[in-house]
């Protein structure tokens, strides 16, 4: 009886005035939905930050971008997207860029208050597919002009690999943009790079008005994710990623030299200390340091948590942060290491220097601070 009664109620609803006006469901597209205003934005997931002047710019989930400093209230910016933003690059006190999921690249020209979409995932799909088609034409021509069967066979193998990538791109057209940018870096207002999942590398020389696909700038046929771009001395740039991917550019990203990686697991970050030494770190607490940028020494930091971010403090010490709130503080001269844990126990993704010995931490629990003990004399 209950089933019959329910069926009768449904029939009455369908035949009545309830459906006299069609109900149209709004389609939610985070890529083109402005970031919501959040009174507690500092407590949400925050991923990356950079300093400009005496302020910081911070990016995170739902398109959140905040500007502020240690002594002032944090201000939420006007952002035209609500995708997760993964990184930010400050060019100067006016110009800055942010990168995020679904192929989002954003630019601000007023110190981080207002942001404009300069690239979206649909445009990225178009760029990459056109690049793949050009590569296909070049390979077909090279096969026809091969000097011998061995060269032709090698080129045909490369063509097969390319066909696989084109098939993936065609699937992406059907499901829509999903590829994230994981980092962005601008050398000046004109020249910059954006990198991300599956070996994506884009470069611009006109301030982001146009972009060129540079996926073959490094030896990354398999398409390992590129996690980070780390600026170094004299306009150099370190590129790191999945499976120990490690490369260096000395011409503002126009070309890269592959480096012998000290580790074949994922690398999540790198930094240069005051002496010019290169530190790289990542999965399971693996840390390595190099004096010349080519040969590396393993450093045992006594943790197996993933290390996601790092900072060279003003007193010369290195701080690496990661999962479970871990903070490894390293004295480069003596290699003495102290391990701390933030009381929240929450994953930390990035770190910035605050006032004195205080550091600003970003991660799953939002924006937090921690007072490190002073360096031993």
From TrEMBL:
Signal peptide interval: 1-20
Any one GO CC term of the record: photosystem II
The UniProt record lists the keyword Signal: yes
Photosynthesis system II assembly factor Ycf48/Hcf136-like domain span: 178-259
Annotated keywords: Coiled coil, Photosynthesis, Photosystem II, Signal
CDD domains for the chain: Sialidase_non-viral (cd15482)
GO biological process: photosynthesis
Coiled coil: 129-156
Matching InterPro entries: PSII_CF48-like_dom, WD40/YVTN_repeat-like_dom_sf
PANTHER family given in the database record: PHOTOSYSTEM II STABILITY/ASSEMBLY FACTOR HCF136, CHLOROPLASTIC, PHOTOSYSTEM II STABILITY_ASSEMBLY FACTOR HCF136, CHLOROPLASTIC
Protein's recorded name: Photosynthesis system II assembly factor Ycf48/Hcf136-like domain-containing protein
Organism encoding this protein: Aliidiomarina shirensis
Lineage of the organism: Bacteria, Pseudomonadati, Pseudomonadota, Gammaproteobacteria, Alteromonadales
């Amino acid at each position: 009886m209950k089933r019959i009664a329910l069926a009768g109620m449904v029939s009455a609803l369908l035949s009545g005035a309830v459906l006299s006006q069609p109900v149209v469901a709004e389609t939610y597209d985070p890529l083109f939905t402005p970031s919501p205003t959040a009174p507690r934005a500092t407590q949400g997931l925050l991923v990356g930050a950079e300093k400009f002047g005496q302020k910081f710019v911070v990016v995170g989930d739902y398109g959140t971008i905040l500007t502020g400093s240690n002594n002032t209230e944090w201000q939420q910016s006007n952002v035209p997207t609500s995708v997760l933003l993964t990184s930010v690059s400050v060019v100067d006190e006016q110009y800055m860029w942010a990168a995020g999921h679904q192929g989002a690249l954003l630019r601000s020209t007023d110190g981080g208050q207002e942001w404009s979409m300069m690239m979206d995932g649909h445009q990225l799909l178009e760029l990459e597919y056109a690049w793949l088609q050009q590569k296909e034409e070049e390979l077909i021509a090279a096969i026809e002009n091969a000097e011998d069967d061995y060269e032709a066979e090698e080129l045909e193998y490369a063509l097969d690999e390319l066909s696989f990538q084109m098939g993936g791109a065609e699937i992406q057209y059907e499901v829509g943009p999903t590829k994230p940018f994981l980092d962005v870096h601008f050398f000046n207002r004109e020249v910059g790079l954006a990198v991300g999942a599956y070996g994506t590398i884009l470069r611009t020389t006109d301030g982001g008005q146009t972009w060129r696909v540079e996926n073959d700038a490094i030896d990354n046929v398999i398409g390992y994710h590129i996690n980070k771009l780390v600026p170094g001395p004299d306009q150099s740039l370190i590129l790191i990623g999945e499976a120990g991917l490690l490369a260096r550019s000395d011409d503002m990203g126009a070309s890269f030299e592959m480096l012998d990686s000290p580790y074949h697991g994922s690398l999540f970050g790198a930094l240069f200390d005051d002496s010019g030494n290169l530190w790289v770190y990542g999965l399971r607490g693996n840390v390595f340091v190099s004096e010349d940028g080519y040969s590396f020494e393993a450093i045992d930091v006594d943790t197996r948590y993933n290390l996601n971010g790092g900072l060279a403090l003003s007193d010369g010490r290195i701080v690496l942060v990661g999962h479970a709130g871990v903070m490894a503080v390293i004295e480069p001269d003596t290699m003495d290491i102290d391990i701390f844990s933030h009381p929240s126990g929450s994953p930390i993704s990035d770190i910035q220097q605050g006032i004195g010995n205080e550091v600003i931490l970003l991660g799953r629990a939002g924006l937090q601070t921690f007072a490190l003990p002073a360096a031993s004399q």
